[in-house]
Amino acid sequence: MKQPTPETAVILSVAKDPYLTTTTGHTMKIVRTLALLIVVLSLTISAFTQAADWEQIQFPKLHDFKPQQPKRIVFPNGMVIFLQEDHELPLIDGSARIRGGSREEPAAKVGLVDIFSEAWRTGGTSGDNAKSGDDLDDYLEARAANVETGGGSDSTTISFSCLKGDFDEVFNVFDKLLRSPAFRDDKVDLAKNQAFGGIARRNDDVGAITRRESRKLVYGATSPYARETEYATLAAVTQADLVAWHKQYVHPNNIILGISGDFDSAKMEARLRQAYESWAKGPAAKRADIAIAPPTPGYYLINKSDVNQSNIRLVDLGIRRDSPDYYAATVFNEAFAGGFSSRLFAHIRSEKGLAYSVGGGISANYDHVGTASLGMGTKSESTVQAIQALYEEIDGLATHPLTDAELNLAKDSILNSFIFQFDSPDKVLREKMAYEFYGYPLDSLERYRAGVEAITTADLARVAAKYLHKERMAVLVVGNSADFDKPLSTLGPVKDVDITIPPPPGGEKGQ
Question: Which position has the higher pLDDT, 406 or 6?
Answer without folding.
Answer: 406
